[in-house]
C-alpha cells in the first residue's frame, strides 16, 4: 500500500488488488483519517435441493468461463476523524465482463467508465457510432466495454464506521 498526500486529498493505492481510494478531509483532520479497504472475491453457485434452486456465494478458489464472480469491497474508517467524499474505484480485471446494473453500494453514487477511467457516467454507458447513411446514433455500450466502476460515498464515513460496495462480473 502506498500513501500519498496532496493538499486536501488522501490517495491510497492498493497495487495488489487494483483498487484505489480518494477522500477529502478538513486540513486539520488530514492526519486523523484512515480508510482501510478489504476485497473479497466470491463465486455464485446454484444449489438445487428438494426441487428448489438457490444461489449461494462461496470463496473464489478457481473461476471458469461463465462463472459469476462478486467483488465486495469493505471500507472501514480506522482513523480519528470523519472521511468526506470517499471514492472507491475498481478497475475490472481482464477476462471478465461487467453484469449490467450489478454495482451496488449504500449511500453511494455509482458511475462507470468505458475508456480506462478517463471519463465517468452513470450506468448505462452510451456509445455513439456513425450509421451507413452518415448520421450518428447512440446505443447502450455492451458489457464488454466497461473498464472501471466507481463508487462515491455521499455520506461522511465517521470514525469506526464501515460499509461495503460490490460489483458482479462474468468470467469470459
> How many structural domains in the coordinates?
1
Q: SSE order, as H and E? A: EEEEEEEEEEEEEE
Adjacency order of strands in the biggest sheet: 1-2-3-7-13-10
Instruction: Count every helix, treating DSSP H or I runs of 4 or more residues as helices.
Output: 0
Largest sheet: 6 strands, antiparallel
Q: What is the alpha-carbon Rg in Å?
A: 18 Å
- Which parts are unreliable, with pLDDT below 50 for 5 consecutive residues or more? 1-18
* Distance between the amino and carboxyl termini: 29 Å
Strand fraction: over 45%
Coarse morphology: flat
Overall mean confidence score, pLDDT = 83
**Helix/strand/pairing category:** mainly beta
Classify the helix fraction into a percent range.
under 10%
Overall number of strands: 14
What layout of secondary structure does this protein have?
Layout: E1 2-6, E2 9-13, E3 20-24, E4 35-49, E5 52-59, E6 68-77, E7 84-91, E8 96-98, E9 104-105, E10 108-113, E11 126-130, E12 136-140, E13 148-153, E14 162-171
Antiparallel strand pairs: 1-2, 2-3, 3-7, 4-5, 4-6, 6-14, 7-13, 8-14, 9-14, 10-13, 11-12
Description:
This protein is mostly beta strands and 172 residues long. The protein has one domain (2-36, 74-165). Helices cover 0% and strands 54% of the residues. The chain has no helices and 14 strands. Strands 1-2-3-7-13-10 form a 6-stranded antiparallel β-sheet, with no helix packed on it. Strand 11 and strand 12 form a beta hairpin.
Features:
six-stranded antiparallel beta sheet, 172 residues, disordered N terminus, mainly beta, flat
Amino acid at each position: 500500500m502506498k500513501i500519498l498526500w496532496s493538499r486536501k486529498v488522501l490517495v491510497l493505492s492498493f497495487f495488489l488488488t487494483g483498487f484505489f481510494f480518494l477522500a477529502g478531509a478538513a486540513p486539520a483532520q488530514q492526519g486523523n483519517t484512515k480508510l482501510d479497504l478489504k476485497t473479497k472475491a466470491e463465486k455464485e453457485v446454484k444449489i438445487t435441493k428438494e426441487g428448489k434452486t438457490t444461489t449461494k456465494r462461496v470463496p473464489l478458489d478457481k473461476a471458469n468461463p461463465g462463472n459469476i464472480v462478486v467483488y465486495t469491497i469493505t471500507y472501514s474508517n480506522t482513523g480519528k476523524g470523519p472521511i468526506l467524499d470517499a471514492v472507491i474505484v475498481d478497475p475490472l480485471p481482464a477476462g471478465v465482463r461487467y453484469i449490467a446494473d450489478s454495482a451496488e453500494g449504500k449511500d453511494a453514487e455509482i458511475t462507470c467508465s468505458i475508456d480506462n477511467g478517463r471519463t465517468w457516467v452513470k450506468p448505462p454507458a452510451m456509445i455513439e457510432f456513425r450509421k451507413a447513411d452518415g448520421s450518428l446514433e447512440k446505443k447502450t455500450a455492451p458489457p464488454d466495454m466497461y473498464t472501471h466502476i466507481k463508487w462515491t460515498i455521499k455520506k461522511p464515513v465517521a470514525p469506526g464506521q464501515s460499509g461495503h460496495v460490490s460489483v458482479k462480473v462474468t468470467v469470459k
